[in-house]
Design goal:
It contains 1 helix and 8 strands; from the N terminus they run E-E-H-E-E-E-E-E-E. With about 150 residues, the protein is mostly beta strands. The protein has a domain of about 100 residues: Jelly Rolls. Helix 1 links the parallel strand 2 and strand 3.
């Protein structure tokens, strides 16, 4: 038996395939100017989360069960943004991570209790007495875990 194939036109038409204009600071085919970082694109699941300024960074705050469970798992380093704060938490896992994390364990007043630099994917980390955990994408030399200015 041969089933007919029904082809429907796209609802959005050819306008949905617009080319993306290059950034005004540099053109396609040229190298990025030195000292200018690539723009970060925050993952869609992190965009609706509330923000909080902590240790010199503006990070997303995991408020729901899904955001607390997933954390930064499954995201690319660029999509992770500055990091994720998980309140009311003393332990985290790095199952499903695509990059290393710097973990900052915070006390009840927001003071740094411990820092675990470059935690590899597939690990479990905790600190007794922690009230929150700040997940930061690890950088070379562990600089991301150090408090900012």
């Amino acid at each position: 038996m041969i089933l007919p194939i029904i082809v429907r036109p796209c609802l959005f038409g050819p306008a949905s395939e617009r080319p993306v204009a290059p950034s005004p600071s540099w053109r396609a085919g040229e190298s990025r100017p030195p000292g200018r970082p690539c723009p970060r694109v925050l993952a869609p699941r992190l965009q609706p989360l509330p923000r909080r300024r902590l240790l010199g960074r503006e990070v997303a705050v995991a408020t729901g069960a899904r955001s607390r469970l997933l954390g930064l798992a499954g995201l690319n380093r660029e999509e992770a943004g500055a990091g994720l704060l998980i309140p009311r938490c003393a332990s985290v896992h790095t199952v499903g991570m695509r990059f290393e994390l710097d973990l900052v364990f915070l006390g009840g007043e927001g003071r740094v209790l411990a820092i675990r630099a470059a935690v590899a994917p597939g690990r479990l980390a905790w600190h007794r007495g922690a009230a929150a955990v700040l997940e930061l994408p690890a950088t070379e030399g562990g600089e991301s875990a150090r408090p900012g200015p």
